[in-house]
Amino acid sequence: MTLDLETAARERGIKYFLVSYTDLFGTQRAKLVPAAAIKGTCKNGAGFAGFATWLDMSPADADLLAMPDPDGLIQLPWKPEVGWLPADLVMDGKPVEQGPRNILKRLIKDAARDGLQMKTGVECEFFLITPCGSEPADLADKQMKPCYDQSALMRRYDVITEICDAMLSLGWKPYQNDHEDANGQFEMNWDYDDALVTADRHAFFKYMTRSIAEKHGLRATFMPKPFMELTGSGCHAHVSVWRDGENIFADRSDEIGMSQAGYHFIGGLIHSADALAAITNPCVNSYKRINAPRTTSGATWAPNTVTYTGNNRTHMIRIPDGGRFEFRLADGAANPYLLQAGILAAGLDGMRNRRDPGKRLDINMYTDGHTVEGVKQLPLNMLDAMRALDRCDVLNDAFGAFVPSYLKLKQDEWNAYCRHLTQWERDNTLDC
Ligand code: ADP
Ligand code: MG
Ligand code: MG
Ligand code: MG
Ligand code: MG
């Protein structure tokens, strides 16, 4: 039964609801609705001018309505009088086809028709930086190999534990927090769940981390590569597919515990990888994380190639143990809903068309990639990825009207980037 929000407000002391949707570029947009008005908002939606956000709409369009999903309610642990509600977009009485949460829900339904449920966990790496954004906030965080740095982690104890306590109270089952491979970089892990639940939590996690960091006078960023010489922020997704409560990716008879269905799903991701990158690595800056030169810590930990492997962190896909794989391509800028939708669309295509992922490569891809012939490189920049998405039948079929809308907005972004004159160009071209 769907939760009655008026009752929930009374029982939990919620005074305001934040009716929130995520646009194509991953930005969360909201209206703050007093509890006394939430019944009307549930019936009629919260109204927005779609053109004012990244949705590819026109100023002449009718009202864009955000219909809150009461099942997604999350009470802000740092401000419990506010309840966050993820919302689905409707216009002229119809679901908005390019709405990211709508797309994910559509694909989840599509998988359910085959009796399948995707469950995922995400690892949202982020930096704690100065409010102006110029450098990591902790000036003592200087180690060349800063990963798991105990002292640097403990200097941020107040922020990290406030976020972790919040996740504990929300029942997300967080299980570890650490300092990551770049100075100023952290990761906090919670348990995997249904893809829509994880997408909502992922969206909320980004909002929560930024908000709590701000409270502590810091700024949290999920930007893929904020500092060129340091490891970037990935957003690895761990994936399994279930039927009737059973993980169909698990197969003990396989050498590394992955079933044929799992290999086909991976085959689908490999088949559509370059197009998928336009979604999972959505920014100009995303391509400075993948294909990057070695960082000061010794490795970028990001993939360069469309390859898969066993328990080895130098490929696009890692199979750490039986029954799941890790998709390492996505980065911190990925839209939480489109990330899950992209993986599901490409993976379902792989299962339905029994796509062959090719040979598993057990080599260190960073040092020995050149020893294997025919290995495909990931897109080198956003424009390459956009062109691959434009050509990709699998994602065009699955995402429908989203693709032309997204590519139109992204082309404008690419053009704006190209109009930017860099110091590198001047340094290298003044004397041409
Ligand atoms: P690593 O750093 O080794 O890549 P983490 O512990 O940081 O791994 O993250 C692992 C993520 O994978 C967690 O969100 C975890 O809940 C999730 N996970 C574990 N088992 C499965 C599974 N069967 N299906 C989907 N996700 C899983
Ligand atoms: Mg108005
Ligand atoms: Mg991790
Ligand atoms: Mg990590
Ligand atoms: Mg990982």
Description:
By secondary structure, this protein is of the alpha+beta class. It is built from 13 helices and 18 strands. Strands 1, 2, 3, 4, 5, 6 and 7 form a seven-stranded mixed sheet that branches. Strands 8, 12, 14, 15, 16, 17 and 18 form a seven-stranded mixed sheet that branches. The chain has a four-stranded antiparallel sheet with strand order 10-11-9-13. Helix 6 runs antiparallel to helix 8. It starts with a helix and ends with a helix. The model has no long low-confidence stretch (mean pLDDT 97). The structure holds adenosine-5'-diphosphate and magnesium ion (MG) (4 copies). The site of one magnesium ion has 3 residues, from loops. One magnesium ion (MG) binds next to strand 11.
Key traits:
binds adenosine-5'-diphosphate, 19% strand, 432 residues, 13 helices, Gln_synth/guanido_kin_cat_dom, binds magnesium ion, 7-stranded mixed β-sheet, alpha+beta, Glutamine_synthetase_typeIII, Creatine Kinase, Chain A, domain 2, Ubiquitin-like (UB roll)
Which secondary structure elements does this structure contain, and how are they paired or packed?
Elements: H1 5-12, E1 16-22, E2 28-34, H2 38-44, E3 46-48, E4 64-68, E5 74-75, E6 82-91, E7 94-95, H3 100-113, E8 117-124, E9 126-129, H4 150-155, H5 157-170, E10 174-179, E11 185-190, E12 193-194, H6 195-215, E13 219-221, E14 235-243, E15 246-247, H7 260-280, E16 308-309, E17 317-318, E18 325-327, H8 336-352, H9 365-368, H10 382-391, H11 393-399, H12 402-418, H13 423-429
Helix pairs in contact: 3-8, 6-8, 7-8, 7-10, 8-11, 10-12
This protein binds adenosine-5'-diphosphate (ADP) and magnesium ion (MG) (4 copies).
Function: Catalyzes the ATP-dependent biosynthesis of glutamine from glutamate and ammonia.
Cofactor: Mg(2+)
InterPro entries: Gln_synt_N, Gln_synt_N_sf, Gln_synth/guanido_kin_cat_dom, Gln_synth_cat_dom, Gln_synth_gly_rich_site, Glutamine_synthetase_typeIII
